[in-house]
Amino acid sequence: MKNQSSIIRAVTTAVLAIGLPGVVLRAQERAIYPEKADARASIKQAIGRAAHAHKRVILDFGGNWCGDCKVLDGYFHKEPSASLLKHNYILVDVNIGNFDMNKDIARQYGVPLEKGVPALAVLDSHGHAIYSQKNGEFESMRAMDANSVTDFLKRWKG
Fold first, then answer.
1. Distance, CA of 145 to CA of 58 (rounded, Å)
2. pLDDT tens digits, one per residue of 27-64
3. N or C: which end of the chain has fewer CB within 10 A?
4. How far is CA 23 from CA 35, 60, 74, in A?
């Protein structure tokens, strides 16, 4: 008999595959949010790369169990958002586990995880937050279209 998390994962995968097949198939094949990564080190490295390349940093807080996070990742890697992301940002996927990891980092950048995930923050090339999601703006990605992500990337690209 399957355990509850296996059932939830299977149902989420089925719902996403039926609703948005071209967008999320790639995201389903891999863990988006690194399980063992040192998020602080990843952010520090991204800020250094962003300063050198004159880009901004996007912090994407989420969990590999999160269907809406998978949809957002799919939209990030689908045109025209993929080009906007590549040319203007360094993306850092920050694993929140089961809302028990990297909460201090979310607080540092003004992202209230209790409002839902995925949750985003945009940093300038010096690591200062210029935007932080306050009201769960992307927590219902499955109900949103790709244009919402494209518009977000255009707005904050600098």
1. 19
2. 456 799 999 889 999 999 999 999 999 999 999 999 99
3. N
4. 23, 17, 5
Report the sign of the C-alpha dihedral through residues 55, 59, 64, 68, in that order: negative
Q: How confident is the model over 53-81, as a mean pLDDT? A: 97
Percent of the chain with pLDDT over 90: 77
pLDDT tens digits, residue range 93-102? 999 999 999 9
Question: Would the CA dihedral through 144, 154, 32, 100 be positive or negative?
Answer: negative
The matching CATH number, chosen from 3.40.30.10, 3.40.640.10, 1.10.510.10, 3.90.79.10, for 4-156 is 3.40.30.10
